[in-house]
Design brief:
Largest sheet of chain C: 2 strands, antiparallel
Structural class of chain B: alpha/beta
Number of helices of chain C: 8
Structural class of chain C: mainly alpha
Helix content of chain C: over 70%
Number of helices of chain B: 10
Strand content of chain B: 15-25%
CATH class of chain B: Alpha Beta
Chains: A alpha/beta (about 280), B alpha/beta (about 260), C mainly alpha (about 210)
Number of strands of chain C: 2
CATH topology of chain B: Rossmann fold
Largest interface: A-B, 38 and 36 residues
Oligomer: heterotrimer
Distance between the termini of chain C: 33 Å
Largest sheet of chain B: 6 strands, mixed
Order of helices and strands of chain C: HHHHEEHHHH
Distance between the termini of chain B: 25 Å
Radius of gyration of chain B: 18 Å
Number of strands of chain B: 10
CATH superfamily of chain B: P-loop containing nucleotide triphosphate hydrolases
Shape of chain C: flat
Shape of chain B: globular
Strand order of the largest sheet of chain B: 6-7-8-3-9-10
Radius of gyration of chain C: 22 Å
Number of domains of chain C: 2
Order of helices and strands of chain B: EEEHEEHEHHHEHEHEEHHH
Chain lengths: ~280, ~260, ~210
């Protein structure tokens, strides 16, 4: 019983330029336990789609149902982490902040705190940080804390908007690992990210938006074979760009080829006289 | 040349942000600075631009010690911050770029000239009368760069200029930065983006306030132990180079280092 | 009208004094004066309307208070000092009108003048003060103005995004305690981020040599 969005579209005012259609009648199904990624250039509607899917925003047209229940009422089943979620930390201690969600859902204090401790563990946030004030944590730790707060309500579907933006490589790795763990435990995860490189190995499904509609919805290897990828405004990771280049010359390389494998193919190509030019 | 000699700096809380740093940056060089968060990278940037003065040691910009004359360093070393939103000081593009030169007390005519010149250098002349709020993230960052260029610095230090931008924005800014090389401006680029670091002339690695490496990017990326220590993976491009046994990338992959 | 900002500001100052001090009988001619001013400046009515909208709740609230707290004539309801009188309505209406006219006139000036121009004009006007006190207060004030203008849309965006984040965590506004807690959860991070932004902008300004000519 997945998240089903039918005929969803969203129109919003863009300043004085008049209305702009952020999404164009999109139909999407997010299955339980999936790990999907939504990519697309800025302004392609990623954020608004995410917000509609998790019930935070009412689409202008169409309906969203989460596990059979109409979206806005399906509290707790779907949760969302906005961009730079650490900006919303407010409580006196991290524990209190993470417990905020469960408390709002009606849980008594002790239970809410237990949920909070559990979530913190699930994202890999060190337990001793729970007693500290948000201002005392590093930027990356605050990001993890905010994520813990989002999943504290134990949602079945988790939507994240650019969860790794602005993080250093180490922290990026921690966040991605946390998401993988959560997914393994059964949470469906949908990430909107322009960071193609780092989520590539991890997401089973790739959805690419272009100016409000779905351009690609499938496996990552479509990026290698499809003709129109350049026009989508994505920053392709090197392995994919190289694989595309080679496939155009008739050499088929998997989209997730490691550097050695790629090098093999390049050498072979050069040997056979077709220079990788 | 920007010369840092044994620079040490601590914030009020007592945390030692920089510990006996010595570094030289020449005009026309392109230096990447990498390292984990809280390793002192931002502090380093602010020392070079004389927003901060070392507790001990010296920062000497083109022969002038920042302790004696901070303004000289600020004119010579431009600083671009990470968050494009936090650098906007006016509503219109023109006024924002004019901010720096106006502060320098230049006559209106010269300010106009510089505004057009710097916007041209980053490819944004056509946007001169636009409102800043209508710009994309990448454009706002270019605006910040133009604003700094308008002060005609000899060096530009950029603190993670593309980390908050999407793919398109990154490309736009990267192109502009590559274009700056021809003006002979020394560029110091603090980054978490390893492929970017690969394109630099030199890579400086900071950790815990100390410089633990200062060498060609290829050499830094070859040092597995070093990279593990700071939690960094060498970029794919580098691994490919290694697998191919080449020093320079050719063909389809050469376009990443314009 | 491409008049120098100084002229516009001077006219605005005169208009403002008139609007606020002239007796209520002069309301109509003052309104005409303000509308002429706006027309001459060339400000777009649509834009002014949009600028006025966010201020309306405040204008209404202030006037409503006046209905209760100020009065003259027969008491319609309530008891001194909180009473509703016919005179009170008139006073409230007049004060609302004055504030609205003031607001429109001011908005017209800001809508038709570039930031730096305005800033320069204010700086120029305050220069005698600077000479007296010996500090660059004029430039600081005009810069503050410009920054405030740039800041406001940012504040709104940040507010909306924090609000959404907390709503996503089940924040509710029903019931007094919940509403208070929710407000706290929105206002605290908002203030924190505003302070941080302000700090960052100050740094960026210093880096671009603000204030070196003192």
């Amino acid at each position: 019983m997945p998240v089903i969005a039918t005929g969803v579209s969203h129109v919003y005012r863009r300043g004085e330029a008049g209305e702009a259609r952020a999404r164009d009648h999109i139909d999407i199904v997010i299955e339980r336990g999936e790990f999907a990624r939504i990519a697309g250039a800025a302004g392609s509607g990623k954020t608004t789609l995410l917000q509609s899917l998790c019930g935070l925003q009412r689409p202008t047209e169409g309906r969203v149902a989460i596990d059979g229940i109409e979206a806005p009422k399906a509290r707790g089943a779907a949760a969302m982490a906005i961009q730079f979620p650490e900006r919303a930390l407010f409580a006196d201690t991290i524990l209190e902040d993470v417990a905020f969600g469960p408390t709002n859902m009606g849980l008594p204090k002790e239970e809410a705190e237990l949920c909070a401790i559990e979530s913190a563990g699930a994202v890999g946030l060190e337990e001793e940080l729970l007693a500290r004030k948000p201002a005392e944590l590093s930027h990356g730790q605050r990001r993890l804390a905010a994520l813990a707060g989002v999943i504290a309500v134990k949602p079945r579907y988790l939507f994240l908007d650019e969860p790794t933006a602005g993080l250093d490589p180490r922290m990026r790795g921690r966040v991605i690992r946390a998401l993988v763990e959560l997914n393994r435990a059964g949470m469906a995860i949908v990430v909107a990210s322009h960071d193609l490189e780092h989520f590539l190995g991890v997401c089973g499904r790739l959805i690419v938006l272009e100016r409000g509609s779905i351009a690609i919805d499938g496996k990552p290897d479509e990026l290698v074979t499809r003709e129109d990828v350049e026009s989508l405004g994505l920053a392709l990771p090197l392995s994919i760009a190289a694989a595309r280049h080679l496939s155009r010359r008739g050499v088929n390389v998997p989209w997730n080829a490691g550097p050695e494998e790629l090098a093999e193919h390049v050498r072979r190509m050069e040997h056979e006289g077709a220079r990788p030019g | 040349m920007i010369a840092l000699r044994d620079v040490t700096f601590s914030y009020k809380k007592g945390r030692r942000a920089l510990d006996r740093i010595s570094l030289k940056i020449d005009k026309g060089e392109h230096v990447a600075v990498i390292g984990p968060n809280a390793s002192g990278k931002t502090t380093l940037a602010m020392i070079m631009n004389a927003l901060l003065v070392p507790d001990s040691g010296d920062c000497i910009v083109d022969g002038v010690n920042t302790r004696d004359d901070a303004v000289h360093a600020r004119k010579a070393v431009g600083l671009v911050f990470q968050d494009p939103e936090s650098q906007v000081v006016a509503r219109h593009v023109r006024d924002d770029v004019a901010f720096g030169p106006t502060n320098l007390g230049l006559p209106t005519g010269e300010v106009e000239e510089r505004v057009y010149g710097s916007l041209g250098a980053v490819g944004m002349e056509s946007l001169v009368d636009r409102e800043v709020s209508g710009l994309s993230g990448g454009q706002k960052q270019l605006l910040a760069i133009a604003g700094v260029l308008a002060m005609r610095p000899s060096y530009i230090v950029m603190d993670e200029p593309t980390s908050l931008l999407d793919g398109k924005g990154k490309e736009t800014v990267d192109d502009a930065i590559a274009g700056l090389k021809k003006y002979g401006i020394g560029i110091v680029r603090i980054t978490h983006d390893m492929p970017e670091a690969l394109c630099a002339d030199r890579a400086v690695v900071l950790d815990g306030g100390r410089i633990i490496a200062d060498a060609l990017p290829e050499m830094v990326f070859s040092d597995r132990a070093l990279l593990d220590g700071i939690g960094v993976e060498p970029p794919y491009a580098f691994k490919l180079m290694r697998a191919l046994g080449r020093d320079i990338l050719t063909g389809e992959v050469s376009h990443i280092c314009r | 009208m491409k008049a120098p900002a100084r002229v516009k500001l001077a006219l605005l100052a005169l208009l403002s004094i008139a609007v606020m001090t002239f007796p209520a009988l002069w309301l109509l001619p003052m309104a005409i004066a303000v509308l002429t001013f706006i027309a001459v400046l060339g400000a777009s009515p649509v834009r002014l309307y949009r600028m006025l909208l966010p201020a309306m709740p405040f204008i209404v609230a202030i006037s409503a208070l006046q209905v209760f707290l100020q009065g003259s004539g027969a008491v319609i309801a309530g008891h001194w000092p909180i009473s509703v009188t016919a005179g009170g309505f008139t006073i409230a209406f007049t004060s609302a009108a004055r504030i609205t006219l003031l607001y429109l006139a001011g908005s017209a000036v800001t809508a038709t003048t570039g930031e730096n121009e305005l800033a320069g004009a204010i700086e120029g006007a305050l220069r005698p003060v600077d000479r007296l006190t010996g500090r660059g207060v004029g430039r600081d004030i005009s810069t503050m103005m410009v920054l405030a203008l740039a800041f406001i849309p940012m504040v709104r965006e940040e507010y909306l995004s924090i609000k959404m984040a907390q709503e996503a965590r089940g924040v509710r506004y029903t019931g007094l305690i919940d509403a208070l807690k929710s407000t706290y959860a929105i206002v605290v991070p908002l203030l924190y981020s505003l302070y941080r932004r302000a700090d960052d902008i100050a740094l960026a300004m210093e880096a671009r040599c603000y204030g070196i000519k003192r």
